Amino acid sequence: MSASVCVLGSSSRGNATAISFDDSGKFVLVDAGLSPRRVRQSFVDAGASARFHTLRAIFLTHLDRDHWSPGWVRQLQRAPVPVILRRAHAEMALSMGVPPACLRPLDGPFRLGDTADVQPIAVPHDELGSTAFRFDCEHARIGHATDLGAVTDDLLEAFANLDMLSIESNYDEQMQRESTRPYFLKSRIMGGRGHLSNEQALVAAQTLTAAGSVQHLVLLHLSQQCNRPELARSLFTAALPSMANALVISRPDAPTPLMRIRRSEVAIA
Fold first, then answer.
1. pTM, full prediction
2. 113 — phi, psi (to 5°)?
3. Which of 46, 82, 109, 161 is in the most buried spot, having the most CB atoms within 10 Å?
4. What is the pLDDT of residues 26-39, one digit of tens each?
């Protein structure tokens, strides 16, 4: 038995990650910024349809358009599942069409059925913030953090001793500064409540992989204007050579390979 993860797409054009905690085929989505049709097609493209065939819940980091697609409103009216998010985002979720019967606001850790313990972590992003999630199940410890302007002590503490780390690596600082983007946008992105640079993500990854338990390190939400996959890969492999073979860079237009995780037996000091 193992847990399975597939990042179906990650960029300003849409974000969604599928996680199955066992071999049942039941899965959750972290963010629903891809339409239901595109999610289904991504499973086919990844060769993962056998692993992901019954949606049991959607976890939302926040409600930006690239994390919540309007196509899910009608889908959830036909086939409701819980939509789980921090209470700070509940009002916006309702205004964007999340059916009230599906909405599950939360204030702290909880148990998802009999499969996983879930810990939400508030992280800085624009006015309402975003939410990182840690999932602990029998087979894996998984951390997912995207759209955060800074790596907080709370996040580092919550993400200790993971088997899989997915973290935003949004922009290359030099490309961002030299881009033709307006000053206000650059300031928002780099001002501590926007997005993580490659360098900031690397510093966090160095801390979070030091215990030796991380089997997959996934970089999320690379900017198509102010980043390049080869830049991020070069930086991470040079600074973290032990993770070179474990590094996966998400794409805006295609799913990652299916990643299977089994809980590490690395001793925790």
1. 0.96
2. 55, -130
3. 46
4. 999 999 999 999 99
